[in-house]
Amino acid sequence: MKIIVGNWKMNGNAEILAEMMTEIANINTDNRVILCVPYTLLRTGTGAVMIGAQNVSKYDMGAHTGDVSAAMVAATGASATLVGHSECRACLHDTNADVAMRAEQAIKNDLWPIICVGETAAERDTGLTHKIIELGVRESIPNNATNGNFIIAYEPRWAIGAGVIPSITEIAAAHKIIREILNEMGFDETPILYGASVSADNVNEIMSIKNVDGVLVGGASLKKDDFIPIITSVK
Ligand code: 13P
């Protein structure tokens, strides 16, 4: 079983979600599909699709205007959440420690956190890719993590929405580092996803790389004609 996550970012509506869920329910796949939707669309998933949020608060509750707690997300029936997504790290100025607090809240409330790590273009250009990945993994995993109760997603930030992906060798090297760190920390069952510019055209090549257990898809998860072929082609 592979894991295919769609990140709708600030897109979609209830009608499109209902249609997408029906489409996915009608296909024959062993893959675990998770749709991370805007807060207003959160709901209970189905056998075929898990529903997730795109972020949760670092805090339990209180005076945090605009923030949404993991307990609130869980109360909608949703069962997962992204944390530390590149766009959230950028606009909320999240450090790895902040991301770990969000992931801790998620786990505390029985949500499956998908912890995103990855380097910026500037970090890549200065040879920091592997260091950023290593720190991202080590520092963003919360204290209440156990083997398999969270997911890591490697998203090279410069490749998000760019229509280009790192070379196969680069993706393989990144995932190898992550797998080694996770194994060392006792999390050998934690899945590792690749995200950034995944499409039906490149998903098979990406999925053939060692230590890639699934994909995190942005733009190509918005339309059924793009997303369904990705789900069905991953075996
Ligand atoms: P794209 O697939 O549009 O590059 O987005 C990737 C992403 O940010 C998924 O979280």
Topology summary:
Elements: E1 3-7, H1 14-25, E2 32-36, E3 49-53, H2 70-75, E4 80-83, H3 86-92, H4 96-108, E5 112-117, H5 121-125, H6 129-140, E6 151-154, H7 168-184, E7 192-195, H8 203-207, E8 214-217, H9 224-233
Parallel strand pairs: 1-2, 1-8, 2-3, 3-4, 4-5, 5-6, 6-7, 7-8
The chain binds 1,3-dihydroxyacetonephosphate.
Entry summary:
By secondary structure, the chain is of the alpha/beta class. The protein is globular.
Task: Work out the number of β strands.
Answer: 8
Average pLDDT reading: 97
- Run of helices and strands: EHEEHEHHEHHEHEHEH
Largest sheet: 8 strands, parallel, barrel
Main-sheet strand order equals: 1-2-3-4-5-6-7-8
Present as ligands are: 1,3-dihydroxyacetonephosphate
| % residues in beta strands | 15-25%
Compute the separation of the termini in Å.
8 Å
Q: How would you sum up this structure, described in words?
A:
The protein has 235 residues and is α/β, with parallel strands linked by helices. It has a single domain (3-233), classed as TIM Barrel. The chain has helices at 14-25, 70-75, 86-92, 96-108, 121-125, 129-140, 168-184, 203-207, 224-233; strands spanning 3-7, 32-36, 49-53, 80-83, 112-117, 151-154, 192-195, 214-217. It is globular, with a radius of gyration of 16 Å. It starts with a strand and ends with a helix. The model has no long low-confidence stretch (mean pLDDT 97). Residues 7, 85, 155, 160-161, 195-198, 216-220 line the site of 1,3-dihydroxyacetonephosphate. 1,3-dihydroxyacetonephosphate (13P) binds at residues 7, 85, 155, 160-161, 195-198, 216-220.
